[in-house]
Design a protein that fits this description.
The structure is a homotetramer. Chain A is an alpha/beta fold. Chain A is built from 10 helices and 13 strands. Chain A is globular. Chains in contact: A-B, A-C, B-D, C-D. Strand 1 of chain B pairs antiparallel with strand 1 of chain D.
Chain lengths: 310, 310, 310, 310
């Protein structure tokens, strides 16, 4: 049997490391914005690693991408125009395209090299989604593009699938109150914004809680939700920020009915029970979230948060 | 600042390792049954490690122990007689003692050295619970003791807080259909059994699913639930097996009311919303659980399962 | 600056591991006989790893290859016919070709895929040596080829650059008393055999001492020598077994004179002082070597030695 | 069999790590100057670790301590007064006491807590040497003490067994040209100074070469020597700086004769052949040492060298 000699070390700010055997290096490429590695793991199959962080793996990426996309899109009535911020692998786009009402999915990712890599090497992620007639891929700074090119009240759903807003990183100005105000204005009256919002567990919650608190200054309804991602070894959080609809008002049965009526293709993780599970935040986490006072603004864009003292 | 030089390597059957910095070794002791280490971690504070597996940590043990005890005890009407199987640290006992109706908590742990260590060094876990007048600690093989010394229809709740049933380990015969039948008979008509039932995630689910399937042969109501434990880096599972009551029938509001009426002292993790969260198993996991066909019996006690090919 | 996320774990039988950052995977290929990896290390530049063991690195391969070749070839009077056993990278061949007297270097390596890889990717090792008119590369089992195709009393120097003789490995029958007798017969009257003979340090010496002891049953003069190889993190041993010449009889000055007269091209590591250093075995090691009683034969080819209990 | 769960990570400035299993923590103590750990390793038995660096182990400490003491003391004619700088474990003192001519061994170590720990816990190292009537232990800054309390021309041999002179560390001012001038003056006409002088290998040589070059500005004879220490996984260097005697002038036979006449008790590593081995520096290392131009002075005490860019 093949023994493993190479390992990916997933290093945490706390000094802890998760060591994953690597059977094969499929790709290593440095783009202008990030360092991309695609490796083969005996446990998680293909792993996509960006700047040393596990981004998603073939074994469990469906959890992340279904969790990010479907709650928001089912909360929008019949979403026709959807904007994806980031979303390099194309798997977020893949899930968006499953919605029958969709007319146009605009994916705006700053890193053209990364999306080119995705097109060529990550077919198992995007499943050809970039070639769907409803898909439009824009290589641009999402904030600049949206501010200049998108009309007010024109978007049904925004899905923010960005890397975390560390100083100097490409997502730096896409997590601020000012940008959320821009998104608010571009969204229709019943528009919904969904975001990936960092890991969330009792030992690590500040990144999530500041994003959440910032959104609360802009949107009337802001709901955290979370689920466990095996390849991240942690619970991961998402947020729905909406103008009208509230994901907490949807019953298990209603979700199952919506899925049956509005989605085509397989949904492996998300259903009514999963929805209830994700939006039911345990008491200890809720207590921590309620304490947050910081707000992320253009002027203090990462709100003094750096990876080291997250 | 103190740099770390010593590390605890939490090794997984898959070849993956989680490496935790260790600031101090507080205790190392080999008992007849297990190797016990108590170390100081910068992230998780004191960590109790048994035979190389993280057992519980001061930082997050409340999640595990509240999840194990309260759903079952609130499902029993007014539990007076509770039996704890295993439970070395004394934290399961601590949670049991919070229930106002309790008359007697019988904790049966085979490893007297381990419970002696707990009494002396783990006060932060048990908080003096061994000295409570309602507590009785028995050092014995739980199966032998229960079969011989406990009358039928006499127990309200059984809490199984055992290490996993690996071959040759002390818990080996405490996870079989035959033992569950014994417990069924010892429980009152509305009796409830709660168990810790190993890690549960899409990449590792067989230990849980075989325990669950075995219980389904004995108890009319069997419900899996799960929550994320940060120091385990994974979701952990529990099962409620009951003669009458069904935890799925309890609403969020009912749970909050029961907690207010029946529990004294602080509950940090468990409440109505947490209950809903834990008992709502995501779709992908539910699919996997439904496939199980194995049953654990005295004759094939670990049902061919060994740690390596779990 | 580039951070490292991938690591090569060099695992020792003792449970110790040396963890080397890896900046790039240049090549990974499984041949019929072995698993070959070529990676880029920030410290050792290109590292050649075979079956999880560091074979040689660009940064320090000259130490190993000069140590293996030059003492034996300078001890032979004017070596014309040299046989290399193994020697995949071509760097042993490179050093052999530096000797002015050389007429023909016969390199016999069983793994054609490995030497093809060397030809294509390891130019920095072999420096075109495979194309030298004096080089002949034979892809064959060295023992079978030498027994059948090589005349007695025909070889000046044999350089054994084989991987270690673990059971089932390709070098299994190339470290036995019977094979050494074959080599003895094929060597001229003043012929010399040099071997790489595993790591040698007070904590790990049995592989060396059994090879040495076996050779002592066949050759009148057997001399151990050793030097430190940085990328191996240990001292590595070699043996000269000869019919007449004794490396201990050569002075520092004589070696320097021989190098000046008989070698063309640069020699970075080996000179008179280095020779004295390598052949002066510290007292504690000498004591251990003197205790050996095992002999490796065709019938007990690895003399019960396996990597685990070396 | 006992499995290992705790590991000591020996971290190198290059990003490499050597991971040693640890079976038991025997001692952990922070003194005013350093963090001391004594652990049990399956390979090296007891390991003494100071500030995260392996200091010495029971399995191989004799190599280091014999190499440090005996060449210098045998080079002094009949050393009566010997000064040890540092030397916490007491093993350097143990070797000094083996010399028949010795009248007084003055050990000056700044860290009283560390020598107290040594007295209590490291008997296997010092073997009661602190109780020998010839031993005097001074807890003081060695430089201040020697400058003020020691007469000129009064010492036969100085053995410098100090931790490395990193900025802010306790040995900071004990590796400078000015201090070496002090030592020169305190030594008798045929006095000898021996120092441990850091690791020395082609990938890491600057610490050694700057110490060596600094000594060359003060002493007429300066000789580097080196040997492999298994628990350090590297060759380690020493220097003899002397007023008259030259270790290179001693033959193998002369060393063996001196050992027989002047030393009582067992010497396991050092003898004539070992002496020749240690003082024969390979050609590649000699080339590197010859390039050094830096000098360590009180004003630039670590000569811009920090552990990170050694």
């Amino acid at each position: 049997m093949r023994k493993n000699y190479l390992y990916f070390h997933d290093k945490f700010r706390t000094g802890e490391e998760h060591v994953h055997p690597v059977e094969k290096i499929l790709l290593e490429q440095r783009t202008h914005y990030q360092f991309i590695q695609l490796v083969e793991s005996p446990v998680f199959e293909k792993m996509l690693i960006i700047d040393g962080d596990v981004q998603s793996t073939l074994r469990d990426e469906y959890i992340y991408h279904e969790a990010l996309v479907h709650p928001a899109m089912l909360l929008s009535s019949n979403p026709e125009i959807v904007v994806i911020l980031g979303g390099g692998e194309g798997a977020t786009l893949r899930e968006v395209l499953k919605h029958k009402s969709l007319v146009k999915a605009l994916m705006i990712d700053i890193d053209k090299d990364a999306t080119d890599i995705a097109k060529e090497y990550l077919n198992e992620w995007h499943k050809g989604s970039f070639d769907d007639k409803r898909s439009v891929l824009i290589s641009a700074d999402a904030r600049v593009f949206i501010e200049r090119e998108v009309s007010n009240d024109s978007i049904d759903t925004v899905i923010s699938d960005l890397t975390e807003p560390f100083e100097g990183g490409p997502s730096y100005k896409l997590f601020t109150k000012e940008f959320y105000e821009v998104l608010y204005n571009k969204l229709k009256d019943d528009g919904v914004l969904a975001l990936q919002s960092s890991l969330l567990r009792v030992t690590d919650y500040r990144m999530h809680s500041t994003i959440r608190h910032t959104l609360q200054k802009v949107f009337p309804i802001v709901r955290s939700y979370l689920t466990y991602i095996p390849s991240f070894d942690t619970t991961w959080s998402f947020i729905i920020a909406s103008k009208k609809g509230d994901p907490l008002s949807l019953t298990k049965e209603k979700i199952d009915e919506l899925i049956a009526n509005k989605i085509t293709g397989e949904v492996k993780f998300y259903d009514g029970t999963t929805h209830i599970s994700m939006f039911s935040i345990p008491k200890d986490i809720r207590s921590l979230l309620s304490l947050e006072t910081d707000i992320i603004t253009d002027e203090s864009p990462v709100c003094i948060l750096r990876k080291e003292n997250l």
